[in-house]
Structure formats: structure tokens, C-alpha cells
Design brief:
44% of the residues lie in helices and 21% in strands. It is built from 12 helices and 13 strands. The protein has a 6-stranded mixed β-sheet, with helices on both faces. Strands 1-2-13 form a 3-stranded antiparallel β-sheet. Helix 9 links the parallel strand 8 and strand 9. Helix 4 packs antiparallel against helix 12 and helix 6 runs antiparallel to helix 7. The N terminus is likely disordered.
């Protein structure tokens, strides 16, 4: 228990009780002070040398301290978590990444060109390397969602599994099942966890409507951030003139992505290049870290243990001093 001015109290107005308490203590001490005439001076001088006389008010002192301490405890001192001690506790994030065939489109990144899926892998690995205190799970989806890794603090393992993610090999595996992927990701998470859903297309497969999946995630206390990966891309195809670049149109359902995010308390981002994707990853993590920190700062615990122990000590010492130690004389 801290008796410093920075201590927080749930009911600080109760300190006004110190005014009548102080008046009562003053009146009691004044009533206990005997009056003497000038002829009593020799007796007073002799009595003042007695330790019992000198300490005759000790029981009242203990009782006064108990009274003041009771007011302190009624004001309900609180302690708050130490940010330095809790800083190691991070976020729980499910990365839900579209791996449908449209993710093979070639786009520019970092002075070169690469497939969208490879660019997402590179940006995600970089993001993981900067989040030392967080836990991650990896869900990828095309026609069907797949749990690549459950929630784990081991970022190197997750990065290894991320590297193994590939595009569908057959048309039967292809598609974009956003709703099913959301449901699977939410099933891995507890309340106050986060889903970052990334896609470059529209929901066209799966058994669960994405809007319904968003409601399920919101009901579970999971926040969903959605990222639409746009930007011009192309694939190389065989034509009459040989292999030629053919543009891949971006077909994002931004209305749906926005509604999913808003339903769960998240936000929708449109990333037209991989540099923006890296920036949005960082922004999402920073937003949630600030929310977590603010939430911890609002939490408090009663700080009563030391005060109650002192109160008990004063209440025990007062009768001991009165009846056993001093054998106080009546005035």
C-alpha cells in the first residue's frame, strides 16, 4: 500500500470525513488534559518525570490513528498494473490470407516484380520480425480454408509455414471463401483477439455468408481488420504471338470488406501496392497495442492489505497500552 500523493482512490470525496474526525480527536485530547493551579507546580514537575504520565495519551494516539486510517480505507485506495511489467504481454493475431489463383498476378515490389502471394509473404515475414511479443496463427484460403499454424509465439515456425503456402493446383480447389475462413480463424481465438483478413477478390465460395461470419466473430469478441489488395497486375500467358503479359483485373467487394470490419470494431484498408500493405499491417498492430495499453491502465485492484494490517495493529495496541502497559490513571 502506498501513502504517496499519487495514490489513486475510488471515493476521494470521503476524505471530507477527516474534518469531523479531526474535531473529535482534538476534543477528546483536550478533555483528557487536566488543569492545574499554581500551587500544583511542584507536584506537576515530579509527575512529569514519570513515563506513565508522559505516555498516558498513547492509547488515544493509537485510536486517533485508527480513525484516520479508517477514513483512508473508506476512500478505497487502488493500484494499477505496472506498464513496465505488462509490456511483454502482446496481441493475439490471426493472419487470414487469400491464396486463390488471382494471387498469382505479378505486381511491383521493392524495385522488382513478384507474384502477389510472394509479395504478401515477404511483407508478412517482415511484419512478424517486428512483433516480438505477439502470438500469431496462420489461416489461408481459396475454395476451402486451412489452418497452417495454430496460435503460437514462435514466429520463425509460422514464417516457415507461410513460405510453404502455394496457389491452388486445380480448378476444384480454387475460389474465395471469405466467410468460411473467418469462421475458422475465429474458432482459434479468444475474446479480444484480432483477425487480419487479406484478399484480392470477392467471396464466391463457401458455406458461410461473410456477413454472418462477421457477426459470429463480433459475438466472440474478436476484432476483424480487412485489407483489400488491389493495384495493377498481370500474368504471363501463351498467345498467338508467344508469351505475353495479360492484365488481371482487381475485383474487390469493398462494401462487404468495410461492413465486416465495422461489424467487429475493426477497419477496412485498401492497399494498392505492397508498400501500403506493410504500412497497414503496422498501423493495425499499433492501434490494437494502444487499445490494449489503455485497457490495462483502466484496470485497477484494491490496495488495502497494508492499510488493514495497520488498522488492526492500532486497534490491538490501544487496549494493550491502556490496560496492560500503562495502567492509566484516571484524571
Amino acid at each position: 500500500m502506498s501513502f504517496l500523493p499519487s495514490t489513486n482512490f475510488a471515493h476521494p470525496a470521503l476524505f471530507l470525513l477527516l474534518i469531523p474526525a479531526s474535531i473529535a480527536v482534538f476534543a477528546r485530547f483536550r478533555a483528557r488534559t487536566p488543569s492545574f493551579s499554581s500551587g500544583d507546580a511542584p507536584l506537576l514537575s515530579a509527575a512529569s518525570r514519570s513515563w506513565r504520565v508522559r505516555l498516558r495519551s498513547l492509547p488515544e494516539v493509537f485510536e486517533a490513528l485508527a480513525l484516520f486510517l479508517s477514513v483512508w480505507l473508506l476512500a478505497y485506495p487502488q493500484r494499477f498494473p505496472d506498464p513496465a511489467q505488462e509490456s511483454a504481454e502482446g496481441l493475439a493475431i490471426a493472419l487470414v490470407i487469400d491464396r486463390s489463383s488471382s494471387m498469382q498476378a505479378i505486381i511491383p515490389y521493392d524495385g522488382s516484380e513478384m507474384r502477389r502471394i510472394d509479395g504478401v509473404k515477404a511483407v508478412t515475414r517482415e511484419f512478424l520480425s517486428k512483433r516480438a511479443n505477439d502470438q500469431f496463427s496462420l489461416i489461408t484460403f481459396a475454395r476451402y480454408p486451412e489452418t497452417n499454424t495454430p496460435l503460437t509465439p514462435n514466429r520463425s515456425v509460422l514464417a516457415d509455414f507461410l513460405q510453404l503456402v502455394e496457389l491452388p493446383e486445380t480448378e476444384a480447389e480454387d475460389g474465395t471463401a471469405i466467410g468460411d475462413a473467418l469462421v475458422l480463424a475465429a474458432a482459434h481465438l479468444e475474446e479480444k483477439s484480432i483477425i487480419i483478413l487479406l484478399t484480392d477478390g470477392q467471396n464466391n465460395r463457401g458455406e458461410t455468408d461473410p456477413a454472418e461470419a462477421a457477426k459470429l466473430a463480433a459475438g466472440a469478441g474478436v476484432v476483424v481488420y480487412t485489407i483489400g489488395l488491389g493495384g495493377d497486375g498481370y500474368v504471363m500467358q501463351d498467345t498467338f504471338f508467344g508469351r505475353q503479359p495479360v492484365g488481371v483485373p482487381v475485383s474487390l467487394d469493398e462494401k462487404l470488406m468495410t461492413s465486416i470490419a465495422e461489424e467487429t470494431g475493426g477497419r477496412y484498408y485498401r492497399a494498392d501496392n505492397l508498400d501500403e500493405l506493410a504500412r497497414f499491417y503496422a498501423d493495425i498492430a499499433e492501434r490494437e497495442t494502444v487499445k490494449l495499453r489503455n485497457e490495462r491502465e483502466r484496470r485497477s485492484e484494491p490496495d488495502l492489505e497494508a492499510g488493514l494490517a495497520l488498522l488492526l495493529a492500532f486497534l490491538v495496541l490501544a487496549p494493550i497500552a491502556r490496560h496492560l502497559l500503562l495502567k492509566r490513571m484516571d484524571p
